[in-house]
Amino acid sequence: MYPVLLHTLTADGLDSIEEGIDCITLFLYHGYKNRPISAEMWKLYPQLLYVCAGSDGYKEGGFGFEYVSQIVGALKNFIAKDPNGMMNVQEGQEKTNL
User: Fold this and answer.
1) Which of 13, 19, 52, 68 could form a disulfide with 7 if both were Cys (CB 3.0 to 4.6 A apart)?
2) Is 63 exposed, middle or buried (0-12, 13-18, 19+ CB in 10 A)?
3) By CB neighbour count within 10 A (0-12 exposed, 13-18 middle, 19+ buried), where does 66 fall?
4) Which residues, 6 or more positions from 15, have their beta carbon under 8 angstroms from its beta carbon?
5) Are 2 and 40 in contact (CB under 8 A)?
6) Which residues make Cβ contacts (< 8 Å) with residue 70, sequence separation at least 6?
7) 96 forms bridges with which residues in the sheet?
8) Residues 6+ apart with CB under 8 A from 51
9) Which of 22, 47, 30 is nearest to 97 (CA)?
């Protein structure tokens, strides 16, 4: 599911971004009740931020700012379901998710 969900969070997948964000939110809420969030799912976290905020130094913001209210729900689930994962440096990153 990861490649499909990641595609929905790109400019090419903008037609299905709402459904992708909803799926991410539901997977996090129902799929990670008693275990930490998988590394693959954590790779979606920075992409969610990129959708609304853009990259560092890009003052205009991301390409999907109108989806911020939906993205906040997904971000809240990341934080609530795996607070320790929020403080870890994930594979391919130089900083923590926080």
Assistant:
1) 13
2) middle
3) exposed
4) none
5) yes
6) 18, 21, 22, 25
7) 89
8) 9, 17, 62, 63, 64, 67, 71
9) 47
Q: Where are the alpha helices (DSSP H) in 1-98?
A: 2-8, 17-31, 39-42, 44-53, 68-81, 83-87
pTM: 0.85
| Separation between Cα atoms, residue 11 and residue 20, nearest integer Å | 13
pLDDT tens digit sequence for 24-81 = 999 999 998 888 899 899 999 989 988 888 777 766 667 888 899 999 999 999 999 9
Token match 């992409």: residue? 47
